[in-house]
Amino acid sequence: MRTKKRTAVCLIAGVALLAVSATAAFGSITGYSQYKESVITLALEEENFSGLGHFSLTLDDQPQMDVAFTYHQDGPDRSSHFTGTEFGRPVDTWDVMIDGVSTWFSLDSDYYYHQGETEDPPNTFLTIDTDDEYEARILNFMNVAADTVVGDLKNNFVQLGTRDGLTYYQVDISQEQIPTLVTAGLSLLAVSQGINEEFAGAFTQDLALENIHCIFSIDREGRLADTQVEVSFLGTDDQGVVHPMVIAGDLTVSDYGTAVVRPADVGDRVLYQ
Predict the structure, then answer these.
(1) Rounded to an integer, what distance in angstroms lies between the CA atom of residue 147 and that of residue 250?
(2) For the chain, which terminus, N or C, has the lower number of CB atoms within 10 Å?
(3) Contacts of 14 (CB under 8 A, 6+ apart)
(4) Residue 177 burial (CB count, 10 A)
C-alpha cells in the first residue's frame, strides 16, 4: 500500500515537474535561470521549509486520486501527512522522521511502525552529492535536459505582475508545441508495466500530452513561493480506445528558515512488532 502510494505520488510529482520545466521558458535568460535555480535550491539545498499542496487525477472523466498533503523539513528531520482518496481507497497517513528514526501510521490503523535510526539522513528534500562524479553528472544532465526542453516556448510565457513581494507567471502550451523529447519519454512510460498497473491498463500503447497550463510565483529572494499545474493527456490502450487523463496539482512553499517538525502523535496505537 505504502509502496503503491509512493509510486503514484512520484509519477504525478515527476510529470508536474517535467511540465513546469518544459513550460518555464522565460522571456529572458535571466528569468529562466532564476526559475530553474529556485527549483534546484528547494529540492537540493533548502534545509528548512514547509509545503502545503493538493493533487488530483481523473481518468475517463472519473476521479482516481484526490489527495491533500503537508510537508515540513528542518534539516534531517521531516514530516508529511497525506489525506484523501487514491484509486478508490481512503488515504490518511503520517510519516515523521526525527533524529534519524522514522515513524509512520495510517489513521485507520491500530498500529504504528518504526524504522531504525538512519545513518546520516539528508538535510534536504533530495540529496545529490556534487562532489561525487556520478551524481554531479546526473545533475548536469538534468540541467542540460531542462534547457533543451525549453526550446522556443518563450513566446508562450506571460508575466502576470507582482503582488505582495511575489512575481507571478503563466504559460499555456498546446499539443503541437510540446517538445518531441517529452512526448517520446511519455510514450516509453506508457508501456512500463509497473506504472500501467496503477492505471488499469489504460496506456498500454501510447501516452501523449495534450496541453499544459501553469501559474507560479517567485519571491524577492528568488525562491519558489507557489505553483499550480494542470496537465491533460490522451492515452491509448491495446484495443485502440483513447482515454483522457487530467493531472492537477498545486503547491505553496512557506516557512523558509522557520519550519518546525513535531513528533508523531500516535494516539493509543501500539508499535507493530
Answers:
(1) 23
(2) C
(3) none
(4) 17
pTM for the whole thing? Answer: 0.77
Rounded to whole angstroms, the Cα distance separating 57 from 249 reads: 9
**Would residue 113 be called left, alpha or beta, if left means φ above 0 and alpha means ψ between -120 and 50 degrees?**
beta
Minimal CA–CA distance to 218: which of 139, 144, 140, 159? 159
Residue 244 near residue 259, CB atoms below 8 Å? no
Q: At what angle do helices 133-150 and 180-190 cross, to 10 degrees?
A: 120
**Structural contact between residues 232 and 208, judged by C-beta atoms closer than 8 angstroms:** no
CB 73 within 8 A of CB 49: yes
Question: 86-143 pLDDT, tens per residue?
Answer: 888 899 999 999 988 999 999 999 999 988 766 677 777 766 555 666 666 666 656 6
Cell numbers at residue 174, please?
498546446
**Lateral strand order in the sheet of 242-254:** 157-163, 166-174, 206-218, 224-236, 242-254, 48-59, 62-74, 77-86, 89-98, 101-106, 111-115, 270-271
- In the Cβ-directed half-sphere of 251, how many Cα atoms lie within 13 Å? 21
* Spatial separation of the C-alpha atoms in residues 200 and 40, rounded to whole Å: 34
Domain ranges of the chain: 2-271
